[in-house]
Amino acid sequence: MSNKANNDKADSKKPKFNYYWIYGLILVGIIVMQLMPSQNTATSINQEKFLREMLTSGDVGDLVVVNRERVEVYLTEEALAKPIYEEVSKTPLMGRKNPGPHYTFSVGSIENFENRLADAKSKKIAALQQEVNKAGNSDTGKKLQKELESTSMLGPKYVTREDWLSNTIAWTLPFLILIAVWLFIMRRVSGGVGGGGGQIFNIGKSKATLFDKDSKVNVSFEDVAGLEEAKEEVMEIVDFLKNPQKYTALGGKIPKGCLLVGPPGTGKTLIAKAMAGEAQVPFFSISGSDFVELFVGVGASRVRDLFKQAREKAPCIVFIDEIDAIGRARGRNTVQGNDERENTLNQLLVEMDGFSSEKGVIILAASNRPDVLDSALLRPGRFDRQIGVDKPDLSGREKIFEVHIKPLTVVTDIDVKKLAEQTAGFAGADIANVCNEAALIAARRDKKQIDNQDFQDAIDRVLGGLEKKNKIIAPHEKEIIAYHEAGHAVSGWFLQHAHPLLKVTIIPRGTAALGYAQYVPKEQYLYNKDQLMDEICMTLGGRAAEEVIYGKVSTGAQNDLEKITKMCYAMVTIYGMNDKVGNVSFHDPQNEYGFQKPYSDETATMIDEEVRSIIDNAYERTKALLREKKEALETIAQELIKREVLFRADLVSLIGERPFSEPGTPKLSMNVQVDK
Ligand code: ADP
Ligand code: MG
Ligand code: ZN
Q1: What mean pLDDT is predicted for residues 337-347?
Q2: Cβ(432) to ligand 1 under 6 A?
């Protein structure tokens, strides 16, 4: 999307504060400290050597013990003149006389050092005393006498010295490292988008993007092909915000939330983006996963912040994309409970309760898994409206192709209709993908314009990828599926007690279904045998149609058969609806999977036989019905192949009104006859 590309560009132009500078500075600091000479220029010397050689030589003038851990040695004036001390007699930098200390060494234990020093001293003194005695009162004798005195005087002075620099480093370095680590973590968690040190302090702020008059959105409703109903409903929300009095005048309440539901890639996010552009009210957009963060409590505080911002901007719309990230049902998984997500969800529920829609905030959310959402989210007063965004039918796909072909350079005679026919089961995103692939393929072939062949190859390529994920229907299968679904529709149409049909389609639903027929369930808790039998016949209608038309059956009815088998066994063994088996019920919920059957082998055989005969009878009855109504079956199947979706009204115009009266059909219903 060009809009997104623009944003990215703007981002990269912004000067960014690079955190690696901090690591660099710390590293440089450490190196400098290592290289810097300590304040005194004393040469280090081994303690052993000092005690054995230097001390006994009589050259030592003074000893200073610093901080009880290091000894500094000052040489006498005379010693400094000796050539062996040349290296320490001058300061290394300026070359002046070195005032000392001249040598230094560290001591492990000061007591140990003192003992050894005293030892060495007394030995030296004893030796000197002998020599003095020997030399008598001569010149050497006097000199030795003096040395003896100075040696006995020699004792360490103790000083304590603050080493300012290394102390500072010792104190600050750990802190510096901690800060660096902290910055690093913060940067990682805050996602690294946008840059700037201020982000660290914004972790509890919501990351919603605000679209209003000043910000440009490049998506309009024209870019959303098909989905007319969804577009209308979405625009109605805007109307709620703009003219609330119109709706509340009669006492009605404006809905607070609205949920876009449909399989992935069908244009839910796209519709919301277009709405941001067209609504002309402030529009906050955020993704469910933006609430989720490493730190506890962040999600909830982001929700609070989002709603605070929204209230300030009211009237406005808040769009939460992929709400399943936070909206999953709570508390099922107690072992690995996700408290943080639950807190976030709870906060969202609280906020949605906390404002009335007269305040002018309406929440729009999108999800492709409405089944996993917490029921609290879906109950009235929260997301009380659902807008279905289904996979496109034939004409929808045609429109989507047109939208996505528009920006491409194509030859003039692109057969959009044919493309749409070949892409049954594709979602909008898949079609966008086909168009993009076609452009790439044409470019690789060095073409100036994209032609039909490129689109064909692109479809094949995308199909290859999709086949693994989704069921995509080949043309010959499409016909079988059409007859199968038409079989359900027609048999239901002419069976008095079957549920009234809402729509029938051969567009796969979700990832597994081949096609489905959707019925309006009656509000009913007690079924009589006739009703159950009609239900069974209608469920068998798919397979019966295949046999009536082709004389053979396919695997497409597996799901139907499972369903009626369960139903029939229930009729015979639980509801007592079979004359032979009689009024008995073997229903034992405690022993559902037990090996011990609560009836004899003969009864078991009887049950099996009865179930079999019920199903056989129903199947014969359905086949007879469909043979009788073969014309209707043909009409509907052919129309299904053409249009892929047929609604009630279409059936009425194709095969006439249902010969039975039926109650009004509510709009939202989910009783679906799915074929897997
Ligand atoms: P989702 O329903 O998963 O949020 P998106 O809205 O993200 O799907 O759709 C992905 C892409 O598919 C869109 O960006 C667009 O290019 C394309 N697309 C999907 N549906 C339509 C549509 N009805 N009209 C035009 N393009 C569509
Ligand atoms: Mg989406
Ligand atoms: Zn079926």
Answers
A1: 77
A2: yes
Q: Which residue has the higher pLDDT, 353 or 626?
A: 626
Enumerate the active-site residues: 485
With CA atoms as reference, report the closest residue to 165 among 278, 36, 296.
36
pLDDT at residue 16 is higher than 60: no
CA dist., res. 404 & res. 400, Å (int): 6
Nearest residue to 258 (alpha-carbon basis) of 317, 326, 304:
317
Structure tokens at 291: 């609430």
Q: How far is the CA of 668 from the centre of ligand 1 (A)?
A: 24
According to the model, what pLDDT value does residue 197 have? 43
Is residue 509's pLDDT more than 70? Answer: no
- For ligand 1, is residue 227 a contact (CB within 6 Å)? yes
pLDDT in tens, 542-559: 999 999 999 988 888 888
β-pair partners for 647: 503
- Enter the tokens of residue 272: 């919301």
Q: Is 642 helix (H, G, I), strand (E, B) or coil?
A: helix
The reply to whether ligand 1 has any atom less than 6 angstroms from the CB of 261 is no
**Distance between Cα 538 and ligand 3 center (Å):** 9
CA distances from 132 to 58, 60, 62, 71, 146 (A): 15, 19, 23, 30, 10
| pLDDT at 3 > cutoff 80 | no
Distance 289 CA to ligand 3 centre (A): 38
Q: How far is the CA of 322 from the centre of ligand 2 (A)?
A: 6
The pLDDT value recorded for residue 188 is 67
Q: Render pLDDT for 74-109 as a digit per residue (tens, 0 to 9).
A: 888 778 888 888 777 776 666 667 777 888 888 878
The answer for 119, left when phi > 0, alpha when psi is -120 to 50, beta otherwise, is alpha
Mean per-residue pLDDT of the chain: 79
CA 599 to chain centre: 53
Residue 278: closest CA among 209, 357, 224, 359: 224
- Cα–Cα distance for residue pair 595/148, rounded to 1 Å: 110
CA 499 to centroid of ligand 1, rounded, Å: 34
**pLDDT tens-digit map of 428-458:** 999 999 999 999 999 998 989 999 889 988 8
Task: Single out the residue of 214, 213, 194 nearest to residue 202, CA to CA.
Answer: 194
Relative to the alpha carbon of 485, which ligand is closest?
A: 3
Find the ligand nearest to 260 CA.
1
Nearest CA to ligand 1 atom 14: 270
HSE-up of residue 476 (Cα within 13 Å, Cβ side): 2
Ion ligand 2: residues, CB within 5 A, are 269
Mutate to test the pocket of ligand 1, among 218, 266, 419 (most ligand atoms within 8 A of CB): 266
Q: Is the CB of 269 under 6 A from ligand 1?
A: yes
With the most atoms of ligand 1 within 8 angstroms of its CB, the residue from 219, 259, 270 to mutate is 270
What is the distance between the alpha carbons of residues 234 and 155, in angstroms, rounded to a whole number? Answer: 95
pLDDT in tens, 294-333: 667 788 888 888 888 888 887 888 899 988 888 877 665 5
**Can you tell me the distance from the alpha carbon of 425 to that of 433, in angstroms, rounded to the nearest whole number?**
14
- The answer to whether the CB of 288 is under 6 A from ligand 1 is no
Q: Which of 191-200, 446-455, 581-590, 652-661 comes out lowest in average pLDDT?
A: 191-200
Average pLDDT over residues 257-276: 88
- Count CB atoms within 10 A of the CB of residue 327: 27
CA distance 138 to 144: 10
